[in-house]
Amino acid sequence: MCIDIFTIYVEGEYIMIKSMTGYGRGENPDKYNFVVEIRSVNHRFLEVFVRLPKPWLFLEDKIKHYIKGKITRGRVDVFINLSCENLPVDIKIDKSLVNNYYKKLMELKDEFGFEGPISLSLLSLMPNIFNVEEESLTERELWEFLVPALEEAVENLIKMRIKEGENLWKDLHNRIKIIKNKTDLIRERAEVALEEYRIKLKQNVEKLSNQISFDQDRIEAEVVLFAEKSNITEEIVRLSSHLAQMKELVVLNESVGKKMDFIAQEMFREANTIASKSSDYSISREVIGIKSELEKIREQIQNIE
After folding, report:
1. Contact assessment for residue 102 and residue 123, using Cβ atoms and an 8 Å cutoff
2. How far apart are CA 220 and CA 223, in angstroms?
3. Which residue ranges make up each domain of the chain?
4. Which of 40, 168, 174, 286 could disulfide-pair with 182, CB 3.0 to 4.6 Å?
5. What does pTM read for this prediction?
6. What is the pLDDT of residue 280?
């Protein structure tokens, strides 16, 4: 069975992200018992390591090429075994050795006067007369018998990576929703914070108004200056945009882990900028929450293909 596109339907969307962690096993018991096991873990790039018997090392490049056509990221370890019980064998007789045994036995018989014939059963008991040799398979034969087991192992590996990808996305999706909610709270709070600053400034001015004369225009200018310095509208817009981009990536049938990591870094940058611009306690608290979720998101993203 061959599967071209693997998808999982979650919350109204086809989720196509894959984890880099997985295991797959395949077997081809037809004539020879080929067994292929594949394990994969996270890695920045694609690295394929093949473990197979030394006589078959000529197949290593073919196996790597096949794996690279199916998987784009991760460290992949491939273990290949062939049951020796099913290998064809050839029994060879050392006729020269048989002849020497026969001559020596005849010498013993004549010298000591033994009676009776030297039988075939007696000769067959002599050591090293029969040699059992495994027939060697050609590269083409090995590959033809190996491919079905390799295909099954890779397919099972990808299925597990997709299942793990589904679990990763469930966690990421929840954290993205948390960040979105906190971003909305920051947006609402930013609108209130400016008016609170205006009121607080006015109250402080009124307390000192009996002692010092204040220019109303100067007060308004101060409010405008504060508004410009603490304006986080652009950062909020970009943060929301990054959240949308993150969700868009999970429906792409391609490697998205690196893109997700880049977006998460950009979200960190926007959160830090918001924190540096705003002196409001409530906004700072929400930013800390966003950064905490982003840390956990980046940890999860490291295992996405």
Report:
1. yes
2. 5
3. 8-86+138-162, 89-134, 163-301
4. 286
5. 0.68
6. 83
